[in-house]
Design brief:
177 residues; mainly alpha; two-stranded antiparallel ribbon; two-stranded antiparallel sheet; 7 helices; 4 strands; globular
């Protein structure tokens, strides 16, 4: 997976309120730094029935958040595709930015975009830049939950993937109103 990220020529433009930046994944240090920052995440442990049940409980809110973020950043009412600036906006609106770095967000987004594109390349024909659809929402949540609450400081409080996902989604949709 990493080789495909490093070897591909992609440019991402993040024009969110966090500032403007360009990321070219042709440079192996960019991906290497992101991997170093993220450590080793085993997303497979998040693919269980308990975690899926938590995701199902919040999926309509996640899709609404997806649509709101794409509307805000892309000016499109019901976009099928979310670009990185929309992802950053979604995370910002749910007050997750103090808990996660832009480098980690970039890494999470790129991994999910690459996985989705490799699973259904025909769906992304003609799209410009890397993007995800609502099908990637659970995977984005897994990575976000692991990064924010999988830290050694929180392992005792949130020992399971289910607990981390539940905490993340509660923070996003119940605690930040």
């Amino acid at each position: 997976m990493l080789r495909s990220l490093v070897g591909s020529e992609m440019c991402i433009r993040d024009s969110s309120k966090l500032g403007s930046m360009s990321l070219t994944l042709q440079d192996p240090t960019v991906v290497g730094n992101a991997v170093g920052a993220m450590g080793s995440i085993n997303i497979e442990e998040y693919r269980n029935d308990n975690v899926k049940a938590v995701i199902r409980e919040y999926i309509s809110r996640l899709k609404e958040s997806f649509n709101n973020a794409t509307r805000t950043t892309q000016g499109v009412v019901d976009s099928e595709f979310m670009h990185i600036d929309s992802f950053v906006e979604m995370v910002r609106k749910h007050d997750l930015l103090p808990s996660i770095t832009k480098t980690d967000l970039r890494y999470i987004f790129m991994i999910c975009a690459q996985q989705e594109r490799s699973n259904k390349p025909e769906k992304f024909e003609g799209t410009k830049g890397e993007c995800v659809t609502t099908a990637s929402l659970p995977r984005l949540v897994y990575y976000l939950a692991d990064r924010v609450y999988g830290d050694p400081l929180f392992v005792a409080q949130f020992p399971t993937p289910e607990a981390r996902v539940e905490k993340l989604l509660a923070k996003m949709f119940l605690l930040n109103r």
